[in-house]
Specification:
The chain is built from six helices and 14 strands. The chain has 251 residues and is an alpha+beta fold. The protein binds thymidine-5'-phosphate and aspartic acid (ASP). The site of aspartic acid has 8 residues, from strand 4.
Length: 251
Amino acid sequence: MPRRRQIYEGKAKILYEGPEQGTVIQYFKDDATAFDGKKHEVLDGKGVLNNRISEHIMVRLAEIGVQNHFIKRLNMREQLVRRVEIIPLEVVMRNIAAGSIAKRLGLTEGDALPRPIVEFYLKDDSLGDPLVTEDHIAAFNWASPYELGDMASNAFRINDFLSGMFAAIDIQLVDFKIEFGRVYEGDAVQVIVADEISPDSCRLWDRNSKEKLDKDRFRRDLGNVIESYREVARRLGILPEDPTPLTAVED
Ligand code: TMP
Ligand code: ASP
């Protein structure tokens, strides 16, 4: 691999300077973390799967006009993306009660919510990514009211589209997290979807068995993490029916 300048290393990805101005190479690691990094394991092949799944989802989103950072996949672990200024918020959309909302509001995991709900969390591991309100976001200027509205409406649109996409392959989209970034074009600032959308950042349940096919398998020590991610990729049509081992040959 040619030596490149590393811009940032996160828990699951590394960002390198891209070949052209305004581009970044996003490298998907096999590291899995949970509980703000307190739980950590290396899961052989996770990065390869998330690279492919996130590519697939970002391409589908671009096709319906949801602007995002994805440019092209470079190899098994890397994709070329637009350089953005990340907005320090995690935007979570929920359809079914699970995880932190179930705990916070005393809901039973698996119960349908009255309607899809959007939430904002501050991206700060040292604080445990706290839930924040629109007024916090405006007061501390993490995003402008215009950007906030844009992120929320995009989140609902993405939820509608991805819910349908997953329903077609017998998967329920329980909830997911997305991140947004700013791109500057002359005087104009635009907010686009960034980061990744993968089983690391979604809750995906098999429609019939309710089996979890996402990172909760890791968080809750349920086993078969990679097998589940591979099943998602297979149903999306990304993997051949009888895949060669994903980690065997890396281009
Ligand atoms: P939560 O129920 O733990 O708040 O998670 C909601 C959704 O956001 C779920 O699909 C998992 C995802 N998520 C992340 O991608 N990163 C995180 O740091 C957390 C806490 C959740
Ligand atoms: N990604 C977060 C962490 O590493 C939390 C999570 O996904 O549960 O701690």
